[in-house]
Write a structure and sequence with these properties.
299 residues, alpha/beta, Rossmann fold, 2 domains, 6-stranded mixed beta sheet, 4-stranded antiparallel beta sheet, 10 helices, globular
């Protein structure tokens, strides 16, 4: 288990991380969210032992993060961190040896992952000759070649088309099943919703939301109603107290309401209309993120 306890990190007089605490259990995928400059990168660097916090602690299975522990961590950075003049084979051998592996074990793992990602023919190609998407696959392989106990994924799907995104998602889920603790960071909220049961949202180094995604959604008052039917009278819907907006999305309307009590008012209004769908749903994580971060981030 990774345990982050009340870490604080200052750059001069600016708090990049301010009293952040969370835990990631083995086999759990945890979301760390925030706009650029929110403190995510600093948090990652502290977890990996690249930076020291001014106060607080980070432990992996009860041990402070030092060189005896960092070999158990894998990290996929948002920026490419590959050596472009090396071949794929040379690159992965280099990273594997840094993590304490022998060459035979590295090559065995490499062959497995190249086959899984359908890029066996690139083994002796130079990194600079690969597409951005295939470079991202190699970066992922370099991060997990040593079977890390903790894996940090910062925008892991950058440059990937939908087919390759799904390929990488399947690999991440397999690592979860094997017991890897995973921290996942992405600006694409649908990926966070798909993967993460727990999350933290950071604004200027502080956690403004922290907990289980399901609980966060339930405690958020605003809801959505998905409405489909003939001759929807939008202005009448907008006139209902507590209706915040009515938007047309493809073949249905999304009605945003102030809280779930407003749903009964909407139902009363439309009960005599020709309606084929009326569904009250929790807000998306993207809506919650914009609502919670938008105003605060501008201050």
């Amino acid at each position: 288990m990774l345990k982050v306890e009340n870490i604080v990190k200052y750059y001069n007089d600016v708090a990049a991380v301010d009293g952040l605490s969370f835990e990631v259990a083995d086999g759990e995928i945890f979301g760390l969210l925030g706009e650029n400059g929110a403190g995510k990168t600093t948090t990652f660097r502290i977890i990996m032992g690249l930076l020291s916090a001014n106060s607080g602690s980070v432990t992996l299975d009860g041990k402070p993060i030092d060189y005896s522990v960092t070999d158990q961590i894998g990290f996929v950075t948002e920026e490419r961190s590959l050596l472009s003049k090396l071949t794929v084979k040379e690159q992965i051998i280099f990273y594997g040896i840094l993590k304490g592996m022998d060459e035979d074990s590295i090559l065995k793992e490499l062959d497995y992952w190249l086959q899984r990602f359908d890029i066996e023919s690139y083994k002796d190609r130079k990194i600079k000759e690969l597409s951005k998407g295939n470079q991202q696959k190699i970066q992922f392989i370099s991060a997990i070649i040593h079977h890390p106990k903790l894996l940090i994924l910062d925008e892991p799907f950058t440059g990937l088309d939908p087919i390759n995104v799904q390929m990488l998602k399947n690999a991440i889920l397999d690592l979860q099943k094997q017991g890897t603790a995973i921290i996942f960071s992405s600006h694409q909220m649908e990926h966070i919703e798909q993967f993460c049961e727990k999350l933290v949202i950071l604004v200027k180094g502080k956690a403004i939301l922290n907990g289980y995604l399901q609980d966060i959604k339930k405690s958020y008052r605003k809801k959505n109603i998905l409405l489909r039917g003939k001759k929807i009278q939008v202005e009448e819907l907008k006139s209902i107290p507590g209706v915040l907006s009515v938007e047309k999305h493809a073949n249905e309307y999304v009605i945003k309401i102030d809280d779930d009590k407003v749903a009964s008012k909407v139902f009363q209004k439309i009960r005599d209309w020709d309606i084929s769908k009326f569904d009250v749903t929790e807000p998306t994580l993207n809506e919650i993120f914009i609502d919670k971060v938008g105003g605060r981030y501008e201050k």
